[in-house]
Write a structure and sequence with these properties.
By secondary structure, the chain is an alpha+beta fold. The protein has 1 helix and 5 strands; from the N terminus they run βββββα.
Length: about 90
């Protein structure tokens, strides 16, 4: 499978090119999330570090935002489990 790369913009305006893993949509379809990798490896098992961020429209651009609410993070984890169990 060919890797796909996207540029993401942080709230501070900085941009970074990352590998797109997948997109997630909340169950109410009101919130979108991006799952991505910066190519970082961690641990003895050399696992790739994966990030999940909320996609927010700031009026003129789509930017990413950290998920800080525990309830929201729990629902994102459920979405990720559905994908993992489907494969």
């Amino acid at each position: 499978m060919e890797k796909k790369y996207v540029k993401i913009k942080n709230r501070d305006g900085s941009e970074i090119k990352v590998e797109l893993v997948t997109y997630l949509f909340s169950q109410d379809e009101k919130t979108n999330y991006i799952v991505y990798s910066k190519g970082e490896i961690n641990g003895a098992e050399e696992d790739e570090v994966i990030y999940v961020s909320k996609i927010v429209n700031d009026g003129s651009n789509l930017v990413i935002e950290e998920i800080v609410d525990n309830k929201e993070w729990s629902s994102v984890q459920l979405l990720l489990k559905k994908i993992a169990n489907a494969q």
